[in-house]
Design goal:
Elements (H helix, E strand, L loop, with lengths): L1 E11 L4 E11 L2 E12 L1 H14 L5 E7 L2 H8 L2 H7 L13 H13 L1 E6 L7 H15 L3
Parallel strand pairs: 1-4, 4-5
Antiparallel strand pairs: 1-2, 2-3
Helix pairs in contact: 1-4, 3-4
């Protein structure tokens, strides 16, 4: 299996508001940058969209090290929250529905295809790839302002 490093970030101007996401895929010394956005969204939706689009761009099953500054994404994957939400009919608990179930469904499906290791990085702390993804996300969001 090929090993790919994936770096992602999401941004939102207002929450909800115009948002964007950015991703960098790195394999064997080569990099590919991806970005996109929506006119009316949330930061968490953009964080998820970054990961979904990055993993979706891989043409075959890969071992992926995913670097994200989103504790929402990292914890839900690493601690199994998203799988529990799905098993409970997209409920966080007996009274609260899980947010963004369609995005989590897509992400969990991609995690079945790829072997994903999740690494949380502190945002806005000088991590070069995270800073680049942030610039891609903010630029994508600007198109909707």
């Amino acid at each position: 299996m090929k090993h790919v490093d994936v770096f992602t970030d999401g941004a939102c101007s207002g929450n909800p508001g115009p948002g964007g996401w950015g991703a960098i895929l790195r394999y064997n010394g080569h990099e590919k940058e991806l970005s996109g956005g929506e006119a009316n969204t949330t930061n968490n939706r953009m964080e998820l969209s970054a990961v979904i689009n990055a993993l979706g761009a891989l043409k075959q099953p890969c071992e992926v090290t995913l670097y994200s500054d989103s504790q929402y994404v990292c914890n839900a994957l690493k601690l199994g929250w998203a799988k529990k939400w799905k098993a409970n009919g997209w409920m966080r608990n007996k009274k609260e529905p899980a947010l963004n179930p369609e995005l989590w469904e897509s992400l969990l499906n991609l995690c079945e295809v790829h072997k994903v290791e999740v690494v949380w990085v502190k945002g806005h702390a000088g991590h070069p790839e995270n800073e680049r993804c942030d610039r891609l996300a903010v630029a994508a969001a600007q198109k909707y302002i």
